[in-house]
Amino acid sequence: MIPAAFDYVRAEDVRTALTALADGGEDAKVLAGGQSLIPMLRLRLAAPTLLVDVGGVGELRGVRDDGDALVIGSMTTHDELMNDALVREHAPLVAQAAATVADRQVRHVGTFGGSLAHADPAGDLPGVTLALDATFSVMGPGGARDVPASEFFVDYLTTALRPDDLLISVRVPKLPGWRTHYEKFQQAAQAWAVVGVATAVRRSNGTVDEARVALTSMGSTPVRAHTVEAALAGAPATADALAEAAGRAADGTTPMSDGIASADYRSHLARVLTRRALEAATG
Amino acid sequence: MTRISMTVDGVRYDDDVEPRTLLVHHLRNRLGKVGTVVGCDTSNCGSCTVLLSGRSVKSCSLLAVQADGVDITTVEGLAGRDGELHPVQLAFHESHALQCGFCTPGMIMAAVDLLTENPDPSDTEIREGLEGNLCRCTGYQNIVRAVHAAATSMRTSVPSTPEAAGAPAPSMGEEVTT
Amino acid sequence: MTVTEDRAGREVGRDRRRKEDARLITGRTMWTDNVSLPGMLHLAILRSPMSHARIDGIDASAARSMPGVVDVITGRDVADVQGSLPCAWTVTPDMAHPDHPPLAVDEVRFAGEPVAVVAARDHATALDALEAIEVAYEPLPAVMDIEDALADGSPLVHQSLGTNKSFTWAFDSAEEGTGGDAAAAIDAADVVVRRRYVQQRVIPAFMEPRSVVVDPTPDQITVWSSTQVPHFVRFFLAAVLGTPEHKIRVIAPDVGGGFGGKLQITAEEFISFLVAQRLRKPVKYTESRSEAMLSAHHGRDMIQDVDVAADRDGTVTALRVRLLANMGGYLRLLTPATPLLGRYMYNGIYKFPAHRFECTGVFTTTTPTDAYRGAGRPEATFAIERVMDDLAAELGMDPVELRRRNWIERDEFPFTTVTGLTYDSGDYAAATDKAMGLLGYDELRREQAERRAAGDRVQLGIGVSTYTEMCGLAPSRWLGSLGYAAGGWESAIVRMLPTGKVEVLTGTSPHGQGHETAWSQIVADQLGVPFEDIEVMHGDTRTSHKGLDTYGSRSLAVGGYALVEACKRVVEKARPMAAHLLECDPADLEFVDGSYRVKGTPGASKSITECALAIFAAHDLPDGVEPYLDADASYDPVDFSFPHGTHLCAAEVDTETGQVRLRSYVAVDDIGKVVNPLIVEGQVHGGVAQGIAQALFEEAIYDEDGNLMTGTFVEYTIPSSADLPDIVTDRTETPAPGHPLGAKGVGEAGTIASTPAVVNAVVDALRPYGVTDVRMPCTPERVWQAIRNGGGRP
Ligand SMILES: Cc1cc2nc3c(=O)[nH]c(=O)nc-3n(C[C@H](O)[C@H](O)[C@H](O)COP(=O)(O)OP(=O)(O)OC[C@H]3O[C@@H](n4cnc5c(N)ncnc54)[C@H](O)[C@@H]3O)c2cc1C
Ligand code: FES
Ligand code: FES
C-alpha cells in the first residue's frame, strides 16, 4: 500500500518545525522516525495533509547529563537509548525497556519522543516514563512548557500535546539507590506487550522504602499501580510481602478485552508480572 | 515533488519524488533495485531490509525523502565488485538458509547488520537479532546456522570493523540522475 | 536396463548446495512484481468492506475522471464475460456449487471480495482512485460459524440454494466391506473416548504477496503469475474465458512460497486478464499483504467430532469421525476436496477394525478455504494423534505404549486399512525408537514426574505424534474415480545439446523446493554428466507445456520418476549412434558413467556427449536415428506413497501465565530414498515450523460482523526466529516397493506431524490440572483458562 498524498517539510531546526506545524493547521503532523506513523499512512488509517520531518533537527537528538536528571532528546532512537552510557548508568529502566521495543530495524529508526507522542497504551516507554516520574519538555506556538508524565498521557493515542506542539525532550530523574526492572509479556517475540510492568524500588536493609509500579496495556493509557505502591511503602522486602502487594496490581485498572487478550487475563498477568518485576528489582 | 539525492550500492542518484513515495518503492520502481522486496504493509516482515548508513532499516517504513543524503546498501550491493559474495551471502548458500528466497534479501541484510554490532553472537542472540524478519519456509534453523558460519568466517578472514561487515561497496564514482 | 542402479549414489544422496541460490542471495530474482513492460497499467482492486451485502449500485464516475485513471471496471461491466472461478473437484454428485464471479456482481459473500478494479498509469493513482468509488451496499446478515450456518433459520450465504450445506460425504467400513460396524463396536466397547477438536482457520501466508502481469499482444496473451500451478491457470483461463488455449502463455517465474496458498485459480488472475484484454494494454496487479490476508484462500477451519472405542487392554475397536468443514463463501479450486483428502488418514497408522466417517461442507460468509500445507491430512493426523493420547490417559497407559499396541507391524505390510487404502511399507517401531532415544524420552518422563511431585510453576509435557500420510498426488485413475477434473501424472523432457550440456524441462513448478538442484542431481547420475552441465527449466507453459505443477508432495515421487524415464530414453536414443561409432552391436554396449562401453573390450567406449555431437552433425547417422538427442517421458503413479515418522517434543508450560516454551523437538521421518538430504532437512524444518505455528500462534479470527480481525501481520502472528526451537532431525529408511525412485515425498510431513505433537505436549504437561484439551492455537491465555477450568492441582 501507498500513503495518500501529503505535503512535506523538512525542518532545519525547532523553530522552522514549529512554524511549519502552525501553518499546517489541524492536519499537519510531526514525522519523527515514522515507525508508527508510516504504517498507519500505508494502510490509509491516517491521512495528514502535511508532514513536518524533524529527523534532521540535531538539537532534538542525544542525551545530556543535567545534574540530578538526564535530558533525553525526543529524536533519540531506541537503539541509542539501549546503548547510551548515560542512560545505561542513570536510567537503566529506559535502556532495558527500549531493548524490548519491536526489532533491530525499528529500533534503529523509531524514537523515544515518537513512542511517547504516539502514546500507544501497549507501548513500552510511556509506562517507563510514568514510573520514573519523568517530565516532558514541550514547545508550542505559545512557547515552552513542562508536562509531568502523570499528565502527559491523556487517553488512547492521545497526549497533552496539541497539534502544533513539538515534544523537545524528556527529563528523566536519576534515581541513585533505586533498582529498576521492566517485565514484559508478549505472545511472540515481535509482538507488543500484552501487559508490561515497569518498577523502581528503593530499599534499605530488609525494608522497601519506596516503590513505583507502572503498568503497560492495562487501560487506555499507562497507569501507576498506586495501591501496590502504598502497600509496599515500608513493607519488608520478602517474597510474601511482594506477592501480597502485587496481588493488588490490577485494582482500579480498566484493561481492554481485544483480539490479543481478555481483560481478565490482563488483570491476572498484571498481578503475576508485578510480583516478578518486584522480585527482580529487589532481588 | 521533492528533490533527493542518495547513494545506493555505490552509485549516486538524484531524483524528484513525491513525498509519499516509500523508500522501498523508490528503490524498486525508480532505481530498478528490485532485489529488495515488499512482503507486508505493517513493518513486520523485514523483507525490505536495507542498510542505511550501515544500519538495518525497513525500507517500507521510511519515506524516500527521509533517506535524502544518505548511503544505502541493498542486497544487490553486497557482493564485491568482482562478484565475490559477501560472507553472509555465501553462508546462506552453504547452510541452505533459504528456500523460496523471498525473505532472503532482507534476512541477509539484517544478518549483516547484526554481525556488525555483535561479531560472535550466540544462538539466542541470533534468533532475537533477527526477530524483525519473517520467513515462512525454513523454520529459521538453517538461517541461524548460516549466521554462525558467516560470523566465524568474518572473524577469521577480515578485521571486524563496521566497514568490513556492513558498509556499502566503495563508490564507483558514477552518477545517475533520473 | 540397469541405468539407475549403475549410477546410483554419485549425485543422488549428496547434500548439493542449491543452484537456485545464486540469484536469490544476490537479489537477481525474477518475482512477478519485478516484471515491468512498456505502457503497462497498474491495477488496484476495490474490495468489499462487508462480509455479506447486496450491491445496489456502484458510482465510479469520479474515479474515472481522475487524472491518470484509464478505466474503472465493475462486476456488472464484465458480468457476461467473466465466467466463474473454477472448482475442479465435484465430491458428491449433488454437491451445491454456486457461481464464483471474479468481480462480484449483485452480492458479496466475504469481506475482501473484489467489487471493482481501477486501471491507472501508476500504482499510487490506482489506489487513490479506489477511494473515489462509491458503492451502495445493502447489508445482509453474516454467518461465520459452521454450526450457526447449519442451524435452522440461519442467514443463507447463497439464497438460491435454500441451505448453507454444500455436500455431505460419508464412508462406513461395514457398508464398503473394509471393516466392521463402527456404531455397534462403540456401543459394545469397554472404553469410549469422545472428543471435539477444533481446527482453527489459518492463513497460508506465503511471504511473497501474489502478483500477476498480463501482456496481451495480437499474437498471444502472456500471463506472469505468482502461482504454484501455471498449467492449471492456462487451462482454466482458456476453458472459462474462452481465449483459445494456444493463445495463452502462463509463466510462473520465481515464486515466493505457496504452501497450497498459491494452488489456486484466483479472482485477481481472471480480473487482470479481463482488464488487459479489454484495454489491450499490459497490466500489473500486486496485492498488499492485507489484501492477501483477505483474498487468498484460508486453510483448515473444521470441527472434528471423534469417538474412539477400545478394549480395556488398549486395543482399539472402532473410530467414528464427524467433520464439519467451513467452505467459506464459495467453492474454489479444491475447497470441497480438502477435508476429504484427509479422510483416508483418520485411522492413522493403526489397525482399526471398524470406521465411520462423515463430512459436511458448509458455506459461511468468510474467505473461501482450500488447500494449505497437507490439505486435510494434518487435520486427520491431528485428530487421531490427539485422541490416541486422550485414550492413553483414560486407560492410564503411556501414550507410546498405546500406539505400539495398535500400530501396523513392519511385517504386516502391505496392509489394507479400514479406509480401503493399501499402505505399501513402514516401520513405525524403528522410527519411534529412534525418536525416543534422540529426545531422551525416559529421562524426560522422570523429570516430568519430579516437577509434578514438587508442584513446580513450570510443568513439563511430552508430546507424541506418530504419523503416516499419503502423498505423491496422484494416480490419475484414482482422481478420476473421485470426481476430480484433472489427472495426476507428471512429465519431463530431457535434451542433450550438441556440446553435451543438458536442458531439462519439467512439468513441476517449484517455489522454494529446489527442483533445479534435485533434478540436476538425478539427471547427472542418469546421464553421467556433471551436475553443473544441467539446466532445469520450469514454470512456463510455452517451454514446459506438459505438466501438472507442484503440490501434494508430488514433485519428486511423480515428476522425479518421469525425469528418470526421460533420461533412460535419451540413453537408449544415443545407443545406436554409439554402436555405430564403435562399430559394434548396440546390444553389446553397457552404459556406465556417461559412456557406452563395449562389454568385454576394455578401452572401447564413446561418451554420450560425443554421441550428442555426432548426432547433431548428422553426417553419418545410422538408420532410424534422428538428428537430435532428446526424449520425453511421463509418469502416472500406480499408487500413493506413504512416508511416515515419529515426532516428539518436550514443552515447558508456565502454569502461572500459560506460556508454552518448546524445549526440544525431534523429528524422525521415513521418506524413502533421499535425493538431497540438505533440501529434505529444510523441508522438515519448515514444515515443522508451520505445524508449530498452527499449534501455538496462528488463527484467523472474524468479529461478529464478519470482519477479519487478523488482517495484517500485526494481529496474525507468524512466529519469528525467536519463537521457534531447534529441531533435531533424523531418518529411517524402509524401501517403498511401489515406487520406482523409492522416494516417498517430504513436503508436508513436518506440518502433518508437528501440530499434534505440540498440542499433546501442552496437554500432557497439564493433565494433573484436570486439563484434557486446549484449543488451538494454545496461546498463553487459552492455556491459562484451561488450567483454571481444569479444576485440578498437580
Ligand atoms: C513492527 C513494529 C513493532 C513495534 N513494537 C513495539 C513494541 O513492542 N513496543 C513499543 O513501545 N513500540 C513498538 N513499536 C512502535 C515503535 O516504538 C515506534 O518507533 C514508536 O512508537 C514511534 O516512534 P517514531 O519515532 O517512529 O514516531 P513516528 O512514527 O514518526 O510518530 C509517531 C507519532 O508521534 C508523533 N510525534 C513523533 N515525534 C513527535 C514530537 N517530537 N513531537 C510531537 N509529536 C511527535 C507523530 O506525529 C505521530 O503521530 C513497534 C513498531 C513496529 C513497526
Ligand atoms: S515490507 Fe517492510 S517490513 Fe514487510
Ligand atoms: S525462504 Fe521463503 S520466506 Fe524465507
From TrEMBL, chain A:
Any matching Pfam family: FAD_binding_5
Signal peptide: none
FAD-binding PCMH-type domain boundaries: 1-177
SUPFAM superfamilies for this protein: CO dehydrogenase flavoprotein C-terminal domain-like, FAD-binding/transporter-associated domain-like
Annotated InterPro entries: CO_DH_flav_C, CO_DH_flav_C_dom_sf, Diverse_Substr_Oxidored, FAD-bd_PCMH, FAD-bd_PCMH-like_sf, FAD-bd_PCMH_sub1, FAD-bd_PCMH_sub2, Mopterin_DH_FAD-bd
Record-level Gene Ontology MF annotations: FAD binding; oxidoreductase activity
Keywords annotated in UniProt: FAD, Flavoprotein, Oxidoreductase
Matching PROSITE patterns: FAD_PCMH
UniProt name for this protein: Xanthine dehydrogenase family protein subunit M
Lineage: Bacteria, Bacillati, Actinomycetota, Actinomycetes, Jiangellales
UniProtKB/TrEMBL annotation, chain B:
Domain (2Fe-2S ferredoxin-type): residue spans on this chain: 2-78
Keyword Cell inner membrane recorded: no
Keywords: 2Fe-2S, Iron, Iron-sulfur, Metal-binding, Oxidoreductase
Classification via InterPro entries: 2Fe-2S-bd, 2Fe-2S-bd_dom_sf, 2Fe-2S_ferredoxin-like_sf, 2Fe-2S_ferredoxin-type, Beta-grasp_dom_sf, Diverse_Oxidoreductases
UniProt key word Metal-binding: yes
Chain spans, region Disordered: 154-178
GO molecular function ontology, one term from the record: 2 iron, 2 sulfur cluster binding
Domain of life: Bacteria
Name of the protein described by the UniProt record: (2Fe-2S)-binding protein
Organism: Jiangella asiatica
